[in-house]
Each structure stands twice: as C-alpha cells, then as structure tokens.
Amino acid sequence: MTVTREAVEAVLRQYTDPNLNQDPVTAGCVRSIEIQGDRVSVQIELGYAAGLFRSGWAQMLAMAIEQLEDVTRADVQVDCVIRSHKAQDQLESMANVKNIIAVASGKGGVGKSTTAANLALALAREGARVGVLDADIYGPSQGIMFGIPEGTRPEIRDNKAFIPLEAHGVQIMSMAFLADDKTPMVWRGPMVSGALLQLITQTAWNDLDYLIVDMPPGTGDIQLTLAQKVPVVGAVIVTTPQDLALLDAKKGVEMFRKVNIPVLGVVENMAIHICSNCGHAEHLFGEGGGEKLAAQYNVELLASLPLSMAIRSQADAGKPTTIADPESQIAMIYQQMARSVGARIAMSGQIIAQSMPNITVSDD
C-alpha cells in the first residue's frame, strides 16, 4: 500500500496549531507534501513569528506522520514568513515596515508601555525584525525600559530622517530622544499629532516585520490621527480587571472599530497578586474583567498577567521581563501573547503579497 497525500493530510488535520487555533491544512500552512516511497517530506509555512515554537511543532508533526503504515521516515520543515497585511482601505503601507500594531489603553496606569515593550522583545525573540515607536508623547518611557542612557540622541540621515536607536535587538524611536527628560511637552493636540506623524514617517526604519506603536492613553486627537493617517493592521487593548479601567478600555475598542482597525485582542494586567511572603493569592483589582471585555467584543484574551514586582523592577532597570528572565512563567506568557498577536494578523486574510501555491510531488 503506497502512502498518499490524503493520508498525510488526514494526519496533519488531527493537530491544532495553538496560535492559529486551526490545523495546518485548514489554516493553509501546508506548502508542499513530497512522497518518495516510504519517505515523506512536508513543508509548512507560518505567517507569524514563531522561532521558539516551530522546531517542536515540526517534530510533533513528523512523529505523527511516521505512525502511518508504510512510512519509515518523515521530515517536516516549518518556516516563518511574515508578509505585509492590508490596513485601512485608504492608506498605503509604509516603506520598510510590513505591519504596524498599536498598543493602546483607555486610561493611564494600566501597564500599557510595559506590555508594548515586552511584546516587541517577545516578537524579536521569535525571530522577527521589530521596532518600537514611543507615541506616548506626554509621558515617553520606552527609552528607560530599553536601557537607553539619558541624553542619547538619534543620528540624522541627509537632514531628512532619524536613524532609530537600537537596544536588545529592537529599533526604537521616541520623542524623549529629541528633548530633555525634564522638559514637559506642553503642546496642544494639533502639535502633538504633527509630531507623531513626523516621528513615524521621518524615521528610517530598517526592514521591519512589526512596528509596535506605544499609544498615549485615551481616545483623543493623537489616537484619531494615528487611526486615520497611519496604516495600522491591528490594535492590542491593555486594561486591568477593575470596572473603571474596563469602562475606558471599551471606549478604546469602540474607537478602533469606528476607524476600521481590527482589535487583535485584550491584555489584562494586574489580574492577581500573590504574596511573596505567604503565597496567598488575591484579586486586588477585581476578577475576570479582561475575559469579560474580550467576550463582549468577540476578541481574544491574549494574556492575563499578575501584579508582579519583577515586571516593574526589570522594566525600570532597562531589561524587561522577556529578556531579563526569559525562562520565567511571566516571560512565557509574553511569548505566547506575541505569537498570538502575530497569528491574529496572519489570519486576517488580507495579504498584500501573493502566497506561493501548494506543491505535491509523488513517485507513483
């Protein structure tokens, strides 16, 4: 009995990619199935960054295929190919930036900037080329979180473009790099919006798969400017479980929906506090708020993170948790969050570049 493509596909359909929530066949990830006698070679292409996931995924699928009768060896190759995805209809994609992701919150103090920094670093650990734009002009903090010394200034190319700074493998641009740390931005909305557009369009980003935009809190001029003039493929909403934060987060979700930017999911910070002395667990800010918000708007709860001193202290020290303690449980949550965000974008189905056709080679 010879091995058939149908038999191999049947095996692959039994395994669900935890990031796409689909099997690789249904998700359209199978690029080729090659059958040479009792040997099977499969090529799978993931449309999101998954460097820490793909080898284990390939091994699991290969072992499953080898359980087929008449198969003595199966080789599964999993590649990550990140393409540009369509943003708002009227906007063209930016040069050297494939996908722009907004990280937003309805109110301040919910850990938005910390989430943006860890999301960027987690995507970079998965093998993506990542940049961070600190658009929180009134309170820029990404320079501190990435450990960039105070007073560091970006170089200027041909008097036209800023060269982004780089830390921990991530390109970074912030208004904080252009002003003194002690100088408040006492600007009105139009000035802030103009400065934001300049930062985005006049920064010479170097071939990015993802640009993470750390938005200022709220739903005012700056948010509308970004939504209407910058090609954003999706937004991540950050909240805490408390009712007040959820109320403002809902406004953020509604704003992005009104300007036709998909909400990729919700991140809930400070979900639970575990006492470092006795281990007692307590929901200081309420329980299940992020889950309810995600369910109400039919989006994914991307991550639920504890109120942790480590998250705060590591970010303050210029090495966020994702790189300061990459094997910790919290870092693993951030990694899963990053893969889920990438997968949600990949599943949007609006790829600018044409994907390759499926190829099957058999010796019968």
What is the alpha-carbon Rg in Å?
22 Å
CATH superfamily of the largest domain: P-loop containing nucleotide triphosphate hydrolases
Q: Low-confidence parts lasting 5 or more residues at pLDDT below 50?
A: 350-361
CATH class of the largest domain: Alpha Beta
Structural class determined from secondary elements: alpha/beta
The strand line-up of the biggest sheet is 8-9-5-10-4-11-12-15
Protein name: Iron-sulfur cluster carrier protein
Organism: Stutzerimonas zhaodongensis
GO molecular function: 4 iron, 4 sulfur cluster binding; ATP binding; ATP hydrolysis activity; ATP-dependent FeS chaperone activity; metal ion binding
Keywords: ATP-binding, Hydrolase, Iron, Iron-sulfur, Metal-binding, Nucleotide-binding
